[in-house]
Recover the amino acids of this structure.
């Protein structure tokens, strides 16, 4: 064997092997092969924080096989991920395999394409010791905090708890937000909109914004009545008409954080799912021989850089000009400024080959892969396009000194919006009232007098800040400098798995355990859970990577204060003096009569009997408003009656889709499958063809007289006739392909315009 290439994942290994040929053997380490021991601290604090690494249990046979391959290879290329964690894995591999320096080569690539892989192999480098030291410092720091604080939590709260450096801060963020919500007192306020008519009887709505040059605050109905009384029957004089052309710049290409936020908002994916799918796109998907076989579709997905390579930018501009026209290209290529504390080792997240449009590769991707790839492709292409241009108009009116304003805009030039628009976090109502309307206002000139038709006076209440969801938590952590791209998802996964935080729908809420543990951490280890201190520590770890500091310096400075806090905490608390009080509900256990308490499980919160394990009764936990919605949900009544009792038939939902059931259930258990006519006659008996939902929740078609007439098919019948034999054409399921009913005829066509019926 000439050369050995070691990567992290088997999927990546198979992709890279297809690019390098027979002179290379590509194998996977399956992540780390060495780590600190689980049974002990594994760090010699007295000896400059020296780490004691051991081979990970279960990796012995793998390490033995890798050693054998490395021994017989001329060169060993360590091709782990292009970040600190990947650098550390390469360093551990070199140590565990006893690789001599002259035989060991480090290669890294931002994208898994044939060109990128071959270029990396041609230009290897040495392992970056400073990057390795930075990762080691983080690992040792997290180990010290976790192993020193966890026993303290066991003694003071309950056994089995664990404290973590960043996970404790993330939990505190959610606990603090919940406290803010509970302490929030809604404030009443009112808005006044005047419905005005122009001389041409065109209507426009304008909002009261102030009096004279000052703003006005309406806190009650009495305030509104006083203003309207003061205005009386005064005419509304147009005092200002401002027209302008405004431009809107595209958003930058994705970083890890922005990709997770946008995929959460637009695709409703959780962060763990987002990163799993992104990993699959990065490592490679088989796109068929016509597209070059296995291809990595996106660049490395753990990054906080906004940099784009010149080649990728040129390819994007060429595609934009060809697909949308030269006018959609900016006057100069766009360059986005990366944040000062970002790691700029590799590019922003973008398609590896922008010419592989989502629609082109869709049939090779899973549903999740397609959705995320399209999001990344659209965002990147839009980021390189010309700005959108809007014609805006703002008009102000004076009514006895009170100022009313209306504004609107129309899109003059779509620019990047032809491809992509960023979604926004939901704004509280009070922050979302003066947003310009996407509409053209009627023609109004200065000094025009408008007639008031009516007032629309609306009572509002200020709203508490919303609970964090995964997207907004990641955004908050990024803004505060807490964590790094590779840590966001593990942090969220950990605090949920350890029951400090629970999901309620999309929202993240603290559990009682999370609140108690956070209170304890704030009182005894304030620095560990301090936002600013945690962000500063991230900067210090970055400093090690830059060579500005050392592992011993960073860890030594931290441990001085941490050791004092630990000693003080252990002295002030006795074992078991903090009790985690279960949250009671008003639900009575029908088995033993106790008040049920709130518990958290893998599917969220539920009510459980407090006498567990004696009584194991549980119930789903619903909010009063959910019950109210459930009660008020209207029933859809069919236009036919029950065949057994003559009662109404109502639409129900089951595990296999929707169906009709007797409204007198459970007294009458008659049901009828829900069918839908598709406007096609049965080719066997002439009755109507209907669509139905099968046991696997997929649509199929059959004669309405089934089983008396046995016609049924997965493909959709149409009213079109085969030009060869005159029989019915069927649309193949999930494809724009139409085939003759008679298989012996063999006629097929891809003309989608043939079919007039709609698939259910």
């Amino acid at each position: 064997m000439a050369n050995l290439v070691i990567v992290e994942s088997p999927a990546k290994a198979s992709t890279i092997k297809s690019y390098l040929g027979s002179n290379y053997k590509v194998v996977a380490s399956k992540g780390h092969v060495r780590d600190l021991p689980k049974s002990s601290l594994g760090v010699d604090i007295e000896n400059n924080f020296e780490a004691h690494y051991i081979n990970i249990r279960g990796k012995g046979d793998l390490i033995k096989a890798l050693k054998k391959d490395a021994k017989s290879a001329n060169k060993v290329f360590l091709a782990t991920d292009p970040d600190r964690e990947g650098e550390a894995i390469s360093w551990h591999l070199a140590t565990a395999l006893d690789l001599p320096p002259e035989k060991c080569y480090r290669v890294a690539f931002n994208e898994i394409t044939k060109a990128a892989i071959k270029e990396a192999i041609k230009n290897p480098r040495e392992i970056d010791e400073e990057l390795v030291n930075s990762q080691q410092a983080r690992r040792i720091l997290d180990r010290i905090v976790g192993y020193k604080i966890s026993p303290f939590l066991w003694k003071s709260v309950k056994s089995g708890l664990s404290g973590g450096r960043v996970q404790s801060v993330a939990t505190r963020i959610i606990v603090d937000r919940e406290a803010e919500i509970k302490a929030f007192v809604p404030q009443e306020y009112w808005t006044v909109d005047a419905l005005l008519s122009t001389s041409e009887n065109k209507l426009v709505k304008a909002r009261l914004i102030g009096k004279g040059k000052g703003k006005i605050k309406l806190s009650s109905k009495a305030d509104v009545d006083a203003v309207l009384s003061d205005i009386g029957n005064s005419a509304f004089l147009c005092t200002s008409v401002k027209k302008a052309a405004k431009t809107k710049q595209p958003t930058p290409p994705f970083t890890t954080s922005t990709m997770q936020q946008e995929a959460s908002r637009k695709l409703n994916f959780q962060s763990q799912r987002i990163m799993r799918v992104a990993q699959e796109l990065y490592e490679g998907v088989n796109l068929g021989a016509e597209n070059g076989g296995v291809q990595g579709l996106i660049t490395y997905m753990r990054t906080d850089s906004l940099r784009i390579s010149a080649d990728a930018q040129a390819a994007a501009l060429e595609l934009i000009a060809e697909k949308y026209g030269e006018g959609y290209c900016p006057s100069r290529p766009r360059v986005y400024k990366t944040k000062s504390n970002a790691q700029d080792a590799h590019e922003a997240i973008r398609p590896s080959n922008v010419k592989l449009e989502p629609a082109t590769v869709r049939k090779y991707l899973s549903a999740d892969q397609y959705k995320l790839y399209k999001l990344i492709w659209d965002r990147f292409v839009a980021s390189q396009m010309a700005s959108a241009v809007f014609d805006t108009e703002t008009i102000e009116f004076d009514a006895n000194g009170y100022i009313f304003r209306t504004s609107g805009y129309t899109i003059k030039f779509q620019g990047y919006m032809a491809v992509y628009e960023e979604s926004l976090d939901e704004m509280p109502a009070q922050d979302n009232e003066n947003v310009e309307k996407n509409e053209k206002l009627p023609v109004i000139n200065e000094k025009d007098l408008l007639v008031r038709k009516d007032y629309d006076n609306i009572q509002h209440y200020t709203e508490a800040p919303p609970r964090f969801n995964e997207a907004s938590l990641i955004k908050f952590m990024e803004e505060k400098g807490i964590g790094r791209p590779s840590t966001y998802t593990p942090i969220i996964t950990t605090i949920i798995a350890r029951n400090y935080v629970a999901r309620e729908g999309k929202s993240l809420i603290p559990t009682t355990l999370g609140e108690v543990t956070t209170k304890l951490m704030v009182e005894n280890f304030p620095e560990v859970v301090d936002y600013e201190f945690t962000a500063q520590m991230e900067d210090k770890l970055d400093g090690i990577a830059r060579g500005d500091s050392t592992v011993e310096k960073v860890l030594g400075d931290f441990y001085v204060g941490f050791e004092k806090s630990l000693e003080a905490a252990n002295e002030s608390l006795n074992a078991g003096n903090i009790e985690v009080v279960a949250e009671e509900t008003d639900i009575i256990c029908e088995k033993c009569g106790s008040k049920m308490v709130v518990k958290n499980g893998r599917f969220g919160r539920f009510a459980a009997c407090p006498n567990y394990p004696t009584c194991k009764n549980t119930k789903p936990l619903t909010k009063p408003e959910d019950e109210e919605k459930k009660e008020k949900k209207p029933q859809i009544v069919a236009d036919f009656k029950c065949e057994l009792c003559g009662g109404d038939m109502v639409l129900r939902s089951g595990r296999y889709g929707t169906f009709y059931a007797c409204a007198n259930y459970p007294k009458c258990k008659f049901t009828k499958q829900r069918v839908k006519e598709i406007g096609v006659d049965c080719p066997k008996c002439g009755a109507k063809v209907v669509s139905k939902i099968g046991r696997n929740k997929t649509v199929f078609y059959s004669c309405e007289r089934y089983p008396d007439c046995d016609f049924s098919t997965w493909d959709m019948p149409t009213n079109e006739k085969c030009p060869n034999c005159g029989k019915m054409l069927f649309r193949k399921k999930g494809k724009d392909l139409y085939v003759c009913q008679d298989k012996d005829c063999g006629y097929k066509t891809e003309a989608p315009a043939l079919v007039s019926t709609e698939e259910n």
Summary: The first strand starts at residue 3 and ends at 7.
